[in-house]
Amino acid sequence: MQNPILQDLLSLSHELGREDRGLAMLGEGNTSARLAGETFLVKASGTCLGTLKEDDVVECRSSALLPMLDKESLTDQQVDDALLAARVDPKAKKPSVEAVFHAWLLSLPGISFVGHTHATSVNQILCSPRAQDFSGRRMFPDEIVCCGSASVFVPYTDPGLKLAQAIRRESEAFIGKQQRRPRVILMQNHGIITLGATWQSVLSAMLMAEKAAKVFVGAAALGGPVFFSQENIARIDSRPDEAYRQRALKM
Ligand SMILES: [Zn+2]
Question: Taking ligand 1, which is a single-atom ion, which protein residues have CB atoms under 5 Å away?
C-alpha cells in the first residue's frame, strides 16, 4: 500500500494543478510533505502538478539542503549538485530547484505540507504596484480564517538559493513580529506559497488567497478595496466560531 503521506501529497498536487483553477499550468508550481525522521517528499523538476505520479516525487534529506541557506553564494552547478546529492534514492528524478525553501518551511514547528503556485489572480496583484497592500491587509472574514491576519511579503528575488534565503529572512521577521507562523507567503513578480499542518489547510489557504485576489482586483476597479481595521482583524481572529471553522477545515 502507498504511504499515506505520499497519497496526501499527490491529492494536494492534483487539486492545485486542476486546469479550471488557473493556479498552475505546464510545469509550474511545486509541493512537498514532511516525513518522519529528517526527510521530506518534493515534486521533481519539470513534472506537472495536475498529473503528478509516485515516481515524479523525490525523497530528500533536509540535512543535505539546509546548510546551503547559510552560504554566501553558490554557483548554479553547486546548487544542482547539492539537489542531486540530497536524494535518498540516487535513481530518483532531480528535485525541484525550490526544494531548498521547501526543506526550510517544513522545518518550522507544525508545518507538514507546503504548496507553491503561480496563481493567476494573485499574480495580477504581485506584478502590480499594490502587491504589498494585498500582502499586509485583509478584506473579509474567511480570508483571515484561511490565510491568517497577514501574509509574508518577499521582494522579487532570483529563483533558487537566493529566493530560499529571502523567504527564510522575511518569514523569520514575520514570526518575530506576529508571534505565529505564516499561512501564506507572497513573492513579488513570482507567485504564492501556502503552508500548514494538513494538505487540506494548504489547499484552503491557496484557494482563499486566489479568491481574495479576485475580490481585491474587482474592488480596486471600483476605487477600493476598503480594508479591515486591525481591530476587525483581531476580533475575527479571536472569535470561537471562527476557531471552530478553522478546525472543521483542518487548518
Ligand atoms: Zn515558482
Answer: 191
